[in-house]
């Protein structure tokens, strides 16, 4: 179980990751939730004729795993996601295993804001998403307790 991090615990250079293999089910679920049924994502016959020659995952599905890292690992619970930039650099296909990675690059002590470099890589170590996020990490008044997660979720530098 990982201890919940405070703003003071977090240092520039700290990193955390989350990995997932993208399934056809994930793509259909995302399409259903968002209403984005672009045939590039869900129609195999259509997608076979595109430059990708296969169905690809929604860019925001891939990018959404950055939120998983931010909300569950670094900075973790009690973080407020303020902004995110995305640049989609390569397609993600069904069966690809992606790794969302965040790294603390700046802290603004007066507002308790944390800026993070955000990237997603595929199993071939190709960057598929590049961006930055800004989160606010303030201690909230609530009973503290353990959270689910890996004990080594955050790498200290």
From TrEMBL:
A GO molecular function assigned to this protein is: (3R)-hydroxyacyl-[acyl-carrier-protein] dehydratase activity
**Pfam annotation, one family:** MaoC_dehydratas
Tell me the InterPro entries matching this sequence: HotDog_dom_sf (IPR029069), MaoC-like_dom (IPR002539), UPF0336/Enoyl-CoA_hydratase (IPR050965)
Q: Is Lyase included in the keywords of this UniProt record? A: yes
Q: Which residues form the MaoC-like domain?
A: 19-119
Per the record's keyword annotation, is ATP-binding included, yes or no? no
Residues folding into a coiled coil are none
GO process annotations (BP): fatty acid biosynthetic process
Q: Keyword annotations for this protein? A: Lyase
Protein name, entry field:
MaoC family dehydratase
Originating species: Niallia endozanthoxylica
